[in-house]
Specification:
The complex is a heterodimer. Chain A is mostly helical. Chain A has a single domain, classed as ABC transporter involved in vitamin B12 uptake, BtuC. Helix content of chain A is about 75%, strand content about 0%. Chain A contains 11 helices and 2 strands; from the N terminus they run H-H-H-H-E-E-H-H-H-H-H-H-H. Chain A has a two-stranded antiparallel ribbon. In chain A, helix 3 packs across helix 8. The longest helix of chain A is centred in the first third of the chain and has 31 residues. Chain B is mostly helical. Chain B has one domain. Helix content of chain B is about 80%, strand content about 0%. Chain B has a two-stranded antiparallel sheet. In chain B, helix 1 runs antiparallel to helix 6 and helix 11 runs parallel beside helix 14. Chain B starts with a helix and ends with a helix. Classes of the chains: A mainly alpha, B mainly alpha. Chains A and B meet through helix 4, helix 9 and helix 11 of A and helix 5, helix 11 and helix 14 of B.
């Protein structure tokens, strides 16, 4: 019994990181109704950033967070101008296809350069013990960092001028434009933020588990599940959804082979979408 | 339908596909055309969802792979002969698609697209864990199974003609659906689903039918393809590249057109063959597909046929 409890707690710790990843996805969705299919590739880019900086330059893994965050932002702004700018306001089919195309390019370059080798970043941190069970230090620190970044995003969106403008654009783009908000620039900033969050969560996941260039698909699917649990376009809900997914994973892992976890999560995704089309924790449209 | 010129254009294309390699007994040409036939089959069936109903199916490869698995498994474990196994694969996968479709097609637009990504993961996990299908090591079939078709060399020709037949049926299916009331309903769904539903198009049923219909021929093509290789494993059967290529082909040729998709498939196959022979490019196949798709989506959303229609308006009457 205690074993299951420990598994659940560990699951929730990891779930916070999934929640952070999903915040990146849901932010872009909430602001411009675009589903970013490069999300998985950006998570992998964060992982590779971590690996390259930590292994070849010998930096401490956690010091790679700022460069990944800043790099992710600029990659995101570039992504906006390349693939999304012309697609905003067009049928969702088109932006799905254009971001999917960029995803192919990124993954293609990644596999051409690194193949499908397994990478592992060693993190030596003391764990916390409760009775016979030890929670790895990396899991705890990743969860704390995820929570801090999520809180920082919340403060940014609610207490700064730019953040408020982002929310205004999400609520009603035309009205925002009428009151003089440069909407295009804010859309680019939102995509930058979303991709930066994906990159950072990838970097954090990289300190927890080994990864390959192709790992992104699985985490992207998890982000979709989390987004659906948390409600579309609702960053706070995404964090709750992440914890819910982590809880589920913790509950399921002792009993089910690992390769089935994604299938169960996917089934949950479909069931939740059918039962609660707006997401479980969703309050209303435009919750951003 | 028989009185329309387009019916005979398709017939001509099939005849050319069947005759060209057979005349000179050209095995190399046959292999390249066989791949083109597979591409045309996958892309024109994907087009039923993507082009007509406006629903992106990222997991069209699931039909192909599952069909391959069912067919190879029936032949290997139950000693069925080729034809009934192919038929069983087609019916089985179609039925599965219909049942799944009734569920996931309640999701609209982008959510359906997302769930098709999940379907790939789900089916692949199933194939990797399912004992009778050999798990992740897959199924080998012994060369003995080629005996009833007159030995391995002749069997390859038989399979090629069967693939061409499947390709022809796919084109006719696309054409028949496009000119039917059913196809009109699908196109209405693609343009505005709510309006279509209000005007009396039974949208959930039509979408599920289209999804199921788009599964039948790819499943048979998958059966033929993996029977030809005498080997199937999850990573080949559910290779995401082929799903992606089918989408690129649809967009390249012009979504929603029959000719465009077939033309796009043929062009893409030629381009790919050319790129694969140069060593630098073979590593970058995904990158090239991606760049191609991006350029089409950004600048030429109506594809090759869009250009032809606007350049030569008269072709609209003949080419569907």
């Amino acid at each position: 019994m205690l074993g299951i409890l420990a598994s659940i707690i560990d699951g929730v710790l990891v779930g916070l990181v999934y929640g952070l990843a999903a915040m990146g996805l849901t932010l872009i969705w909430g602001v411009m109704d675009v589903i970013n299919l490069t999300h998985g590739a950006m998570i992998v880019a964060g992982m590779m950033g971590l690996y390259l900086l930590a292994s070849s330059l010998g930096v401490s893994p956690y010091l790679t967070l700022p460069p990944v965050l800043i790099g992710g932002f600029f990659v995101g702004v570039a992504l906006y101008w390349i693939a999304i700018h012309r697609m905003v306001g067009r049928p969702p089919l088109m932006s799905l296809l254009s971001t999917f195309a960029v995803n192919l390019v990124v993954i293609g370059v990644g596999t051409a350069v690194w193949g499908t080798a397994l990478f592992n970043v060693e993190v030596a941190l003391p764990g916390a013990s409760i009775g016979r069970y030890t929670f790895p230090g990396a899991h705890i620190l990743a969860a704390v960092l995820a929570a801090v970044i999520a809180a920082a995003l919340y403060v940014f969106l609610h207490n700064t001028r730019i953040g408020k403008a982002v929310r205004a654009v999400a609520n009603n783009r035309e009205a925002a434009e009428l009151v003089g908000i440069p909407t295009t620039r804010l859309l680019a900033i939102s995509v930058g933020l979303g991709v930066a969050l994906a990159g950072v969560s990838g970097m954090l996941i990289g300190t927890l588990f080994p990864f390959t260039v192709l790992s992104g698909d699985g985490y992207q699917l998890k982000s979709f599940v989390v987004t659906v649990l948390g409600g579309f376009g609702n960053p706070v809900g995404a964090l709750l959804g992440g914890m819910a997914l982590g809880l589920l994973e913790g509950l399921v892992t002792p009993f089910v082979p690992v390769s089935w976890t994604l299938v169960i999560e996917f089934a949950l995704f479909v069931l939740v979408l059918i039962a609660f089309p707006g997401g479980i924790f969703a309050s209303r449209r435009g919750a951003l | 339908m028989v009185h329309r010129p387009f019916f005979w254009i398709i017939a001509l294309a099939i005849a050319v596909f069947a005759a060209l390699p057979a005349i000179g007994n050209d095995v190399e040409l046959r292999e390249s055309l066989a791949l083109a036939a597979v591409y045309i089959t996958l892309a024109s069936n994907l087009n039923l969802m993507l082009g007509y109903a406006g629903y992106i199916n990222f997991g069209s490869i699931v039909f192909f792979g599952l069909g391959g698995y069912i067919c190879v498994w029936l032949i290997d474990a139950h000693n069925w002969s080729l034809a009934p196994s192919l038929f069983a694969a087609g019916i089985g996968v179609s039925a599965l698609a219909f049942i799944f479709g009734l569920g996931i097609l309640r999701l609209r637009g982008p959510f359906f697209a997302l769930s098709t990504i999940g379907i790939i993961e789900g089916v692949q996990a199933f194939a990797e864990n399912f004992g009778p299908w050999g798990g992740s090591s897959g199924i080998y079939i012994s060369p003995q199974v080629f005996q009833p078709l007159g030995g391995a060399a002749r069997a390859l020709w038989v399979i090629y003609f069967a693939l061409v037949a499947v390709m022809g049926l796919s084109l006719y299916l696309s054409y028949a659906i496009k000119t039917s009331k059913f196809g009109l309903g699908l196109i209405a769904i693609g343009q505005n689903e709510d309006a279509a539903a209000i005007l009396g198009v039974p949208t959930p049923r039509y979408k599920a039918f289209a999804y199921s219909a788009s599964a039948f021929l790819p499943a048979i093509a998958g059966g033929l393809y993996f029977f030809k290789g005498a080997f199937i494993q999850p990573s080949d059967a559910f290779d995401l590249t082929l799903s992606t290529e089918a989408i690129v082909i649809c967009m390249l040729g012009g979504q929603g057109t029959v000719t465009g998709v077939a033309l796009g498939a043929y062009l893409y196959e030629e381009l790919r063959g050319y790129l694969l022979t140069t060593a630098t490019f073979s590593n970058f196949q995904l990158v090239i597909s991606g760049v191609l798709l991006l350029v089409i989506v950004l600048f030429f959303p109506s594809g090759l046929m869009g250009w032809i229609y606007s350049r030569f308006p008269r072709t609209k009457r003949v080419l569907e």
